[in-house]
Amino acid sequence: MSSPKRASDPPYLVETEAGKTYFWCACGQSKNQPFCDGSHKGTAFTPVSYHATTAKRVFFCGCKQTANQPLCDGSHKKS
Ligand code: FES
After folding, report:
1. Is 64 in the pocket of ligand 1 (CB under 6 A)?
2. What is the pTM of this model?
3. Tens digit of pLDDT at every position of the chain (79 positions)
4. Is the C-beta atom of 50 inside 6 A of ligand 1?
5. 62: CA distance to ligand 1 center in Å?
6. Is the distance from CB of 41 to CB of 19 less than 8 angstroms?
7. Is residue 36 in contact with ligand 1, taking CB distance under 6 Å?
8. Of all helices (H) and strands (E), which one includes residue 50?
9. Close Cβ partners of 4 (under 8 Å, ≥ 6 residues apart)
């Protein structure tokens, strides 16, 4: 598996909690999108951490093509 699985076209909107660290799924195989559930084991992918300093709405990438991991950069509209 050299390219990530496209988990979703639109990004995932998450209300983050201040002080909490999230682990975004980079491989696209997690059943708990957009977060890692360990399904990447045996692949070249590892999750990407995101530390929320404040509580806010965050769009996590679902297509796994973003150049601004783990956040949506609009790449889902290009491919
Ligand atoms: Fe996808 Fe962990 S399950 S990076």
Report:
1. no
2. 0.94
3. 689 999 999 999 999 999 999 999 999 999 999 999 999 999 999 999 999 999 999 999 999 999 999 999 999 998 6
4. no
5. 12
6. no
7. yes
8. strand 48-51
9. 26, 27, 28, 45, 64, 65
